Amino acid sequence: MRERVRATLEAPRFQQVIIAVIVINAATLGLETSAAAVERYGTALTVVDHLALYIFVAELAAKVYVYRREFLRDPWNLFDSVIVAVSLLPTAGGLSVLRALRILRALRLISVVPSLRRVVTALLTAVPGMTSIVLLLGLVLYVTAVMGTKLYHATAPEYFGDLPTSLFTLFQMMTGDAWSDITREVMDEHPSAWVFFVLFMLVCTFVVLNLFIAVVVSAMEDEHAEESVQATQELGVAVLAELAALRAEVRELREFQGRAPAAPGTDDRRTSAPAPRRRGSARGRSSGG
Fold first, then answer.
1. At a CB cut-off of 8 Å and minimum separation 6, what does 167 contact?
2. What confidence tens digit (pLDDT) does each residue in 180-197 have?
3. Which entry of 124, 156, 181, 247 is 20 to 30 Å from 30 by CA?
């Protein structure tokens, strides 16, 4: 029974059904944000939402039944369990804000779709490499914020009035949001301020942020290489198992042929058949006689 349930859970069609349920549930939760849709289809949306939740609970229960202790060893199973558990919490009274968290079910696509799972795994793998870059970026932001506060707090107090305001302004500029407007406003009083802002944009936007992209791409390449090696190893193991099975079958056939009794009326010794007489020689003997 457990093997049948395992085969059903791991079947591609079952995974496609779960993906379809997640997408439909996400669409219904989005429709609930429309007052007109709730007024017209409120009951149907509620039924679909509850039905999807029951399907998710049944899927998790089946996985626990099949995998048992291995269920807790898979981080993606824990991820799905947390999302479903949040949906099962009561949403009445002071916990009504939890109704908004039901949309987290859409995140289950990450654990179901293999390509999304690979991307998230690569991002998590790249986190240790990002730590040094985050420290570097924070150091650059802090130094430039202190410099900007001391240089331009009187000229543009709404942007560089104090250290927290300067940090937020420089972070906004780093994202490319209205950085030219801020720079021009400061340059009206300090024409040479362009040097400070251009150097900041070059260092943060074109160097540090690209380091983030490089680390993520490197992590994704490593993840793809590990998957390729794992797939090759699994293929090699399957081929070796198939060869071992074929050798065992050939060995059994040889042993069977060696133990098989000879058919009755047959002899292993070769018998010599009499050579046919030639007509020419017979005629010669008859004429000579």
1. 141, 142, 145
2. 889 998 998 899 999 999
3. 124
- Statement to judge: residues 90 and 129 lie in one domain: no
3-state secondary structure of 34: coil
The torsion of the CA quartet 103, 87, 99, 123, rounded to 10 degrees, works out to -40
**CB distance 197 to 179 below 8 Å:** yes
Distance CA 26, CA 122 (A): 25
Residue indicated by tokens 């009445």: 92
265 domain-assigned: no
- CB of 24 closer than 8 Å to CB of 53: no
**Domain with 126 in it:** 117-232
Query: Is the same domain home to 209 and 132?
Result: yes
Cα atoms found within 13 Å of the Cα of residue 203, Cβ hemisphere only: 17
Q: What is the pLDDT of residues 7-40, one digit of tens each?
A: 888 888 988 999 999 999 889 888 888 888 888 8
80-111 per-position pLDDT tens digit: 888 888 888 776 555 556 667 778 888 888 88
Quote the DSSP letter at residue 1: -
Q: What is the DSSP letter of 205?
A: I
Query: Which of 112, 131, 154 is the endpoint of a domain?
Result: 112
Please give the Cα distance from 276 to 138 (Å, whole number): 107
Report pTM: 0.60
